[in-house]
Fold this sequence. Notes:
With 314 residues, the protein is an alpha/beta fold. It is built from 7 helices and 14 strands. It has helices at 17-26, 71-80, 96-102, 118-127, 129-136, 153-163, 203-212, and strands at residues 4-11, 36-40, 58-62, 85-89, 107-117, 141-145, 168-172, 178-180, 196-197, 221-229, 238-245, 254-261, 272-285, 290-302. The strands form 2 sheets. Strands 3-2-4-1-5-6-7-8 form an 8-stranded mixed beta sheet, with helices on both faces. The chain has a 5-stranded mixed beta barrel with strand order 10-11-12-14-13. Helix 4 crosses helix 5 (129-136).
Amino acid sequence: MEDFPVYLFTGFLEAGKTRFIQETLEDPRFNGGEPTLLLLCEEGEREYDTTLSCMENVFIEVIEHESDLTPRVLDYLEKKHRAERAMVEYNGMWQLSSFYDSMPEAWAIYQEFLFIDAGTFLNYNANMRGLMVDKLSSCELAVFNRFQTDMDKMEFHKIVRGVNRRTAIVYESREGTVEYDDIEDPLPYDINAPVITLGDEDYALWYRDVSEEPKKYNGKTVECVGMAVVNSRFQAGNFAFGRKVMTCCVEDIQFASFLAQCDSEQMPENKKWYRLRFQMEFKFHKLYGRRGPVLTVLSMEEAEAPKDPVATFY
């Protein structure tokens, strides 16, 4: 079954989605007249100019309610217009999972862009953090519209990078000047040190980096404070070692851990804090069901819980 390409544009009202989609459709490098389904999940003040020749084979359909997003509806609209692709202007107040879960089998996200009004971003991030994280987590490009010279790029950069390390970031002024984010993101610890020593505030970043690029930690020695969790399913000498991590809000707190191994007579007590020094290996273990990070304990001593027991990215 061939992919049905989907171009997904997310963001809150008046963030610039409609303007960008219109300009994209006007570009002959993108639009060669292919039948295109344009799904509008919200309608802002700006409207599409359907009188333009580039809009001749663009078929606009409005999805008014999040509950209307179903595989049956989307499949019907695709077939109704014999569309070869879809462009989606998504409602910023809806969870992206509603769209992902409703995509017919052949639908595949080819690109996902997030548009943000720079003037409201910090306020939205503070008051609607869950929705902002939802949109930042999977976008390939985050565009900050109406960015002003007196705004601090680093403040914006840190928030985006706290959620997504791979997305490209663009700052666009009211005059249309575009600047690409080129701020480097060095890790807060020395990965080439004989012993990588993690501060309490470094755990979340380290855990994510290991999860994304486990092979680069193969053979590394690390020391940090975490909680040991002993489970009856584990063989003697095996336990989970980690910390609770919060990405955006209390509801998403989870115990982020890796498998640790020690001599059976050295086993830690369940749910107690320890300072561990361990060597990391990226290898197969049946508890993962695949290859994954395995921590071989070199030393272990009881420790006080961190000042903030729940690790964050901020």
